[in-house]
Structures are given as C-alpha cells and as structure tokens.
Specification:
It is a single chain. This protein has 135 residues and is α+β, with helices and mostly antiparallel strands. It has one domain. It has a two-stranded antiparallel sheet. The chain has a two-stranded antiparallel ribbon with strand order 3-4. The longest helix is centred in the first third of the chain and has 41 residues. The two termini are 31 Å apart.
Amino acid sequence: MMDTNAEVVRNLEEAIEKKIPEALYHAIEKACLIALTDAKRNCPVDDGQLRNSIEYQIEQENGETVGYIGTNVFYAPYVEKGTGIYNPDGRQTPWSYQDVKGDWHRTRGMKPQPFLQPAIDDNRDKIQECFKEII
C-alpha cells in the first residue's frame, strides 16, 4: 500500500511540474496579447512603421518565463517619452535645425505620446486575471 501512495504522489508531482510551466507560459502569452493590442491601438500613426513593429516575445531560461512587449524602431523612445523640454531628461532650451530642402526650423521638442507603458498600466487588472486563472 505504501508503494502505491508514494507512486501516486510522485505521479501527481510530475504532472504538476509539467502543467504549471505550460499554464504560466499561456498566461504570459495572454497578458502580452492584451498589452500588445492596446499598445497598437494607442500608438500614433504616420506611415504605420511604429505600430506595425510592436511585438511581444516570451523567453524561457533557467526555469523562468518572462514576457516582453516592445518595438525595435529607433525613434520609439522619442515618441513614448517625448524630446526636448517635454522630456525631463531632454534638452531644456530651444534649438534650430536645417531640413533636407535647406529650410531652417526652430523647435522646443516633441510632446510625449505614450503607447507602451499605458498599455500595461491601463490593463493591469486584466493582466492579473490571466495569472489568477492558473492558480
């Protein structure tokens, strides 16, 4: 009888060890998709390059599973955080620049148009629900 109980416990432990990482992966994926959808909806659009570049990625390493949402477009941080006087870390004085046509322009910076951080902040409850489902 003792062997049977030990075997049942071992089988349950093995099943749990397999199912929890799978459930966690799916919860992270669902959470990433929630944030991704909102980030794309809130992303300012000129030619669509920034919006189309927003993706999510899930990495599993050393027993940890981590989800990321973001973009590799070089100007994304400037859109998210702003530039010049509108960014606390930006230049605090106006500046001039010459465009490709030779015309001069004066600017104080660009106001932030956040789309990534609000996608997480505004959906925090929905994201937490993804993980409650696996508990």
